[in-house]
Design goal:
- Residues 9-137 form the TiaS-like TCKD domain.
- Residues 142-255 form the TiaS FLD domain.
- It holds the Pfam family TiaS_FLD.
- This protein folds into two domains: 5-153, Alpha-Beta Plaits; 160-248, Glycinamide Ribonucleotide Synthetase, Chain A, domain 4 (Alpha-Beta Complex), CATH 3.90.600.20.
- The chain is 29% helix and 23% strand.
- It contains seven helices and twelve strands.
- The longest helix has 14 residues, at 72-85.
């Protein structure tokens, strides 16, 4: 792709306890970008940051993408529109969106590592963005900028994959009906290449969320073929909208590298 630009995109905090999901926004963005003259340079990245953040909605996950495009201005405009459309701002979401052209400088990873275990406020994020010529956009108080910047700078020393399937709009907020037996069977047939799908001790499904967000289920694993095979084992009568596979830091131990001294 001649005369093209590398564009890094990061976003976070688009959901609220009442709906939406940052990964669902990623699914919608990918759907739009597929129709543009765009080359995806990696999987979308789902980065789980500090799990102890008191204002997190669910898993404190931010998303980033790395693409090549001839028209970054057009792409930025489309993504801004999607962030506005698929952020639950009326119910407390504070979305942050960042763009950075060309390769990510190595010092960005320091910000990302801190976000794994420390509290970083939005003013620190804005200061970092301005200092490093990161183009940013936000709604509400802009707390999502922390995750957005952290996601584009995250350095994956190790990774797992997560396949997230999404519901049709008419099903948002309704009970998820997924055969527990099929989940148990899926885990038995795909381990160790999938993990954390079914709790045998408590006889409990672990891949379905419980809130009104658009996710139907999420399968965590080690390779694409196994994840796709796993979806064929699961049984539900619900017609799903589609799925997206993310590169993730879940199950890698990245969150366990720092210790607090409690005295």
């Amino acid at each position: 792709m001649t005369d093209s630009h590398i564009l890094n995109i990061g976003f976070d905090d688009t959901d609220s306890p009442k709906g939406m999901c940052t990964t669902f926004l990623a699914y919608k963005i990918v759907d739009v970008l597929k129709k543009q003259e765009t080359e995806f340079l990696d999987f979308p990245k789902l980065v789980r940051f500090n799990p102890n953040i008191p204002w997190k909605t669910r898993g404190n996950g931010a998303v980033s993408m790395k693409i090549r495009t001839k028209n970054p201005s057009k792409i930025k405009g489309k993504i801004k529109h999607l962030v506005k459309k698929y952020s639950d701002i009326n119910n407390g979401a504070n979305p942050g969106l960042v763009f950075y052209e060309n390769e990510i400088p190595k010092h960005f990873t320091k910000f990302s590592k801190l976000a794994l275990w420390q509290l970083i406020n939005r003013n620190q994020a804005k200061k970092f963005a301005r200092k490093n010529n990161i183009e940013f956009f936000y709604k509400g108080n802009g707390q999502g900028l922390v995750g957005a910047i952290g996601a584009i700078g995250y350095d994956f020393k190790d990774h797992t994959l997560e396949l997230l399937s999404y519901r049709k709009n008419s099903k948002f907020g309704k009970d998820r009906k997924l055969s527990a037996t099929s989940v148990k069977t899926m885990q038995e047939k795909t381990q160790p290449n999938t993990f954390n799908s079914f709790d045998n001790k408590k006889n409990r499904v672990l891949i379905t969320p419980h809130g009104p967000d658009p996710v139907f289920y999420g399968i965590r694993g080690e390779n694409i073929d196994t994840l796709l095979h796993a979806t064929k084992i699961l049984k539900t009568d619900e017609k799903l909208a589609g799925h997206l596979i993310f590169k993730s830091n879940q199950g890698t131990g990245d969150h366990l590298e720092n210790e607090f001294n409690v005295t």
